Structure prediction request, 53 residues.
Amino acid sequence: MVTLLDVRSEEEFQSLPSPLGAQCPFEEMEKRLWQLPKEQEIVAYRNGPYSVL
Prediction:
């Protein structure tokens, strides 16, 4: 099983929410790492010129 993690900013998420996975702004990642499942592969998504989702 894979967890899709949306790491876009809160503003980006509010403008276009993603029903595909969990949302955790990149800026909060260090504080929230403990919430991520350790037994699953995690794929992070963030808007940018190289994004392909």
The first strand starts at residue 2 and ends at 6. Strands lie at 2-6, 22-23, 41-45. Helices lie at 10-15, 29-32.
